[in-house]
Amino acid sequence: MEEIEQCFHDLRIAKRSTQKTEDLTYLLDIDCIKSPTCQSSQLVAVSCSNHCIRVYNKETLALVQQIRGHSAPISGIRFAQTNNQLLYSASCDGTLKCWDVRLSGADVAQVYKGYLDNAFISFDVSCNDLVICAGTEKIDEDAYMVFWDARSGTNTDGPKVQEPLGVYSETHNDDITQVHFHPSNPNMVASGSTDGLVNIFDISQETEDDALLATCNSDSSVSFIGWTGKQQEQIFCLTHDEGFFLWDLAHFHNDEPITLIKMQDARECLKLDSGDLDYLIGGFYHKKADRLFVLGGSHMGRLHFLQCEVGSLAYMYSVRDGHSATVRAFYWDSEDNSLLTCGEDSQLVLWKPNAIETSREKKMTMKLPSNVQRKMRVHKNNACKGKK
Question: Which of 36, 95, 324, 386 is the most exposed place for a label (fewest CB within 10 A)?
């Protein structure tokens, strides 16, 4: 554990992306190719507030290509895990799209269409790349989890088009802000919503009622969920009012309490010597340390590493000077202990232990009104029901 703590402590800026001064777009989401053996494994993709996707070389942060193909905010991006040339994106324009990163940014390989009035605000792809699931904004009285077969659709005059396999519509009653497949079980998927609920499903079952395995309640609007633990039987949740929750799904089958950590507002519980904790960004499970880590930040761009201990989060270390505004997303690479961060200052920053920054680009201060609809900082408390 001391080695991991030292690694975080030694993180320094290695590279930052270079952007034109007039190009003040927010960077909202980030993903990297996960296979270290792939020839194109150095690629990292970020989604932008101007509805485009930028693909960079991970080591140099040189822009490889820019993909334009959505007409509304992009709610998420994911590289495929078994075919590293494929990049998926979901959008509020009611489509998901699959891009071949070897081709021109204007060429979409496949389109996944939803139903009328669908606006997709979250999505994920199963670990075997066979199933896609997306969450929608609330439509009338319903919010939907829409499923597709990720494989090739029908041929039209343009790209291949795939129609939905079906939907889940009974288990959330507000916007579905998070969808996250299990890291190793392609049939298990978790969802989170502004209704405060985190639901876990086995999609191999025939009906939605049979598929619902567990329901956990955060009593607030869910902003981030993830799997953690040695057997990936625990699930954690961040909320839009900076709450943190950790549940052990194995305890649904015994008399032990399922709630391991319940923090309604981490900002009030954690006192940081190095600056304010204004928000929580997300978390990741570190296999070597067998521990869950959470990344938080300040609106001036400082980043705070937190670790999950028995019953609470604990402050570890802070890094600064990478960003000048809110950080929206990050990607931790356990292969080389590097960190990628992006945010509202239009900067993509690569951090490595004991690195020396070679680029001379200065971080920009952005004070633009945001029209970004995804990953918004809403603060709403709903009356929720579910197992606590």
Answer: 36
